[in-house]
User: Which sequence fits this backbone?
């Protein structure tokens, strides 16, 4: 039996960053750029107006006030997306809308609020400026956001909605990114029934397939649901053959000490069993290894396998601790750890097992400090404890008791990893 840290090191040491592929920009959120992005033009491409108003020569407004307005002749109107062919000369102005290019000769914008345009029947012929404007007032200079030729986004950047917008502003319809891992999910157990079928007496519905597939999606992977396999070696082997083009295989159940726990034995024969059992609760009967696979192009490869416990909470907790960082590494992410905070525990906790405890908790912030309370009973079959929790209180192996009011580390489940 090995420690949580040793297990994580072995798992992360067995996975590599996947190859790059082109993808439409709207499908890349959460993925990592596999190329540097350079601007072939500046943004904005031309000087333009930051406000609705009048493009003027700043010196024509010198000393202007409501008591001493400066009357200018309006020679054109320019809307966003069009360009005025007229030149602003002394004593003239061009009516301009936000985003429209600044016409030749103008060096400032007098916004509508400092003119008498609202009081005039026709402000397209002349307008009075009621306040002095400075040189460059309300102008957005060409290239002030992105200079032509600049490296805008670097290889290794995690794409968020803002990066999608930047790519769109550069006219990019697709971009090279580290591809998403394909994660095959196989759930075992004769007691399980698919949720699409009636529930016979003595059986329970399969929740692991759905919670794990949802976790794979949440962290950016592509779930490949293999369905249920009964506790039969032949059926298990047949299901495993459907996963041979995946990047990761996740199974649940079949890894403990029971007579019908076949997964670890079958996988050991199909590949290599690296370790079995980890000093943690929930999640002690965890298996990790590699099996022989083949890419869609027929190239031989190894597939990492995580054999998670069958209890629903254990499966989700071990996914968060081990599968999530492995997936993130495959996607080229640098920050693999869940955010961890220090919180004040609101009830005592015992740990006489010598294992690392991951207890489901509700974390709240009060007056600048975090407080954590357990969700209730911590049995590994109480799946609602995960739905109530936003964090996992981590009690180290050598900490036998945590008293109420002491500080504990909490691994936050719902905070963005880039926070």
Assistant:
């Amino acid at each position: 039996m090995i420690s949580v840290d040793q297990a994580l090191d072995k798992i992360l040491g067995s996975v590599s960053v996947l190859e790059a592929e082109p993808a439409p920009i709207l499908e890349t959120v959460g993925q990592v750029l596999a190329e540097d992005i350079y601007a072939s033009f500046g943004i904005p491409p031309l000087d333009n107006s930051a406000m609705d108003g009048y493009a003027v020569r700043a010196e024509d407004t010198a000393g202007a006030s409501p008591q001493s307005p400066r009357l200018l002749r309006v020679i054109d109107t320019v809307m966003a997306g069009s360009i005025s062919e007229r030149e602003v000369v002394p004593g003239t102005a061009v009516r301009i809308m936000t985003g429209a290019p600044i016409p030749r000769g103008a060096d400032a914008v007098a916004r509508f609020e400092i003119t008498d345009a609202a009081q005039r029947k026709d402000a397209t012929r002349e307008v009075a400026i009621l306040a002095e404007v400075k040189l460059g007032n309300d102008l957005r200079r060409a290239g002030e956001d992105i200079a032509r030729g600049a490296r805008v986004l670097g290889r290794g950047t995690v794409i968020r909605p803002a990066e999608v917008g930047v790519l769109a502003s550069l006219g990019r319809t697709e971009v090279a990114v580290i591809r998403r891992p394909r994660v095959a999910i196989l759930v075992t157990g004769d007691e399980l029934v698919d949720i699409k079928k009636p529930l016979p007496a003595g059986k329970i519905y399969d929740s692991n397939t759905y919670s794990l597939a949802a976790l794979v999606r949440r962290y950016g992977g592509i779930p490949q649901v293999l369905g249920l396999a009964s506790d039969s070696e032949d059926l298990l082997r047949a299901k495993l053959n459907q996963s041979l083009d995946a990047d990761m295989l996740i199974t649940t159940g079949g890894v403990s000490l029971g007579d019908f726990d076949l997964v670890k034995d079958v996988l050991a024969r199909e590949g290599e069993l690296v370790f079995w059992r980890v000093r943690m609760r929930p999640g002690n009967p965890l298996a990790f290894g590699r099996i022989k696979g083949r890419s869609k192009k027929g190239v031989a490869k190894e597939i990492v396998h995580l054999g998670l416990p069958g209890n629903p909470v254990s499966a989700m907790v071990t996914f968060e601790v081990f599968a999530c960082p492995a997936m993130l590494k495959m996607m080229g992410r640098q920050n693999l750890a869940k955010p961890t905070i220090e919180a004040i525990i609101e009830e005592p906790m015992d740990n006489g097992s010598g294992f690392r405890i991951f207890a489901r908790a509700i974390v709240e912030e009060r007056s600048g400090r975090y407080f954590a309370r357990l969700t209730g009973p911590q049995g590994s079959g109480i799946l609602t404890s995960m739905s109530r929790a936003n964090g996992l209180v981590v009690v180290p192996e050598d900490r036998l008791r945590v008293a109420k009011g002491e500080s504990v580390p909490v691994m936050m489940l719902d905070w963005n990893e880039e926070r």
The chain has four domains: 4-19+180-330, 30-41+148-178, 48-140, 340-412.
